[in-house]
Amino acid sequence: MSTVAYITVRGLFGRRRALLLLPLPLLVIGLALICRSVGVDADQWGQAVVQGLGLAVALPVISLIVGTGVLGSEVDDGTIVHILTKPLPRRDIIIAKLLVAAGVSAVTSAVPLFIAGVLADSVKFGLALSAAAAVGALAYSALFLLLSLVTRRPVLLGLVYILIWEGLLGRWVSGTRVLSIEQYVITIADKLAPTSMLAGKVSVPVAVVMALIFAIGGTLFAINRLGSFSVAGETS
Amino acid sequence: MSDAGVIHDIGYQRYQGPRLGRRAVFSSLYQHGLRAAFGFGRSAKSKIFPWGVAAIALLVAVINAAVRSQTGTWLFDYYSFADSMSWLVIFFVAIVAPELVSRDLRSGVLPLYFSRPLRAFDYVSAKVAALVTAAWLLLGVPQFIMFLGGAFTTKTGMKGVWHELGLLLPGWAYSLLWALVFASISLLIASLTGKRAFAAGGIVAVFLMTTPVVGVLSVLPSDTSRHLAGLASPMSLIAGVEAWLRGRGDLGIDVGDFGVIYGIEAFCLIFACLLLLLARYRKVAAL
């Protein structure tokens, strides 16, 4: 299991595409620094940076790239066969990959959010943001890991979820918020450190329970899918 | 043993038909790109995403035309139709651009392409032209439906139709600007990686992460930075160009006296992306 995790980490960071993960966190920190140094009131820029860029873009996009990268790229390359033929329970493979994905996306999104939160309000707000981001990273990773098993176009489906479901519908149709991980993250962060910058739109129990359902349900279903996984060629 | 480097003539028949040149290669690459953009000639699975996006755009246009013919008021005019479809356009180029260039990188056909009388310029311009046409069709056809709706319900006869046409043509030009900006940026990003998945993620990330920058820059305590904030993101850049050319200040973006800078940046952005694309294809690896 630790070998699977090690191979996954090397697959993520061993190539140039790991650099894709850098610009988003740097942009969050950079914008927060600029606003802070110019001396704008945090109420004006806090929401744009923390929610608009950090929670709505950086966290889901990083989780999408990492979450579909850990398993999806192995499926694409066909190297998944080497892992599947080893005498390992499929459960261990999924859990190892999920832990790596969630860990990497949690670190790369929680650190810039912590810094932005400290610059915007207080250390408490920063800690609340990074805790909520970690929960969100786990739920997103489980979802995108599952997507890379049930479909051959996981990134596009993930983008549909982020752009259309969370971005477009979540803004106007209130019912879709119950199934939007972004709203859980906002609610949890707002509960841990109430500020005027974030406004949670779902109740706290719903947020926590649904985030857990996404994480655990996604993992269980992914284990089930990998149990009967068939290797196919390139999509047409 | 014969001299090294001699190719023996073992009697196969030579090809004596016409040899098509660069223009034929260009036009077949363009046609193939345009067909691939909408999934023609591919399986049903690869038609889902592009046609899903196109269906939403068409649906919005039909609803818009219906509402207008019933009540006489627009939900959107031709310009704001393109603006309000911006998320769809982002998603569309994120699907199609990797399909056009990343696939070639991944399957390693570029050395084969470039061993033909095809130059990097032809390849790049065929791909750009295909994506620009596809993205323009995505916006232009719904606009044409809106035009038909307006033209058939006009109360002033032929004069009304001409008036409507006068509104449609600038709207089409505006959609062309959208298509040019989005196509050049997304092809540049997609040409960097052979994985379609990563290319799609990268394209969306670039467009999404620039939007909040505009919001942040516009709250800085300086009029100049407020007027120039829109330069930071392609979407607000195009809206700024529209505000400059139409002399409107009520479009949700305030360009002040800097409108011409928006025009210059839009031009330079497209031009720079195309030059970088050309530089990208000066050398292609043979896997």
Description:
Chain A: It comes from Paractinoplanes ferrugineus. Chain A: The chain crosses the membrane at residues 52-73, 94-119, 125-147, 154-173, 202-223. The complex is a heterodimer of chains A (236) and B (287). Chain A has 236 residues and is mostly helical. Chain A has one domain (2-227). Chain A is built from nine helices and no strands. In chain A, helix 2 packs parallel to helix 5 (90-120), helix 3 runs antiparallel to helix 5 and helix 3 (42-77) packs parallel to helix 6. The model of chain A has no long low-confidence stretch (mean pLDDT 85). Chain B has one domain. Helix content of chain B is 72%, strand content 0%. Chain B has helices at residues 22-37, 45-71, 78-84, 86-107, 110-114, 120-152, 157-190, 196-217, 223-228, 234-246, 259-280. The two termini of chain B are 34 Å apart. The A-B interface holds A 17, 20, 23-24, 27, 31, 34-35, 38-40, 44-45, 48-49, 52-53, 57-58, 61, 64-65, 68-69, 72-73, 76, 152-156, 159-160, 162-164, 167-168, 235-236 and B 42-43, 45-46, 49, 87, 90-91, 94-95, 193, 195-198, 200-202, 204-205, 208-209, 211-213, 215-216, 219-221.
Largest sheet report of chain A: none
Q: Note the beta-strand portion of chain A.
A: under 5%
Number of DSSP strand runs of chain A? 0
Helix content of chain A: over 70%
Keywords (chain B): Membrane, Transmembrane, Transmembrane helix
Transmembrane segments (chain B): 48-66, 78-97, 128-152, 172-190, 197-220, 260-279
Protein name (chain B): Membrane protein
Protein name (chain A): ABC transporter permease
What characteristics describe this protein?
heterodimer, A: 236 residues, B: mainly alpha, 11 helices, transmembrane (chain B), transmembrane helix (chain B), Membrane protein (chain B)
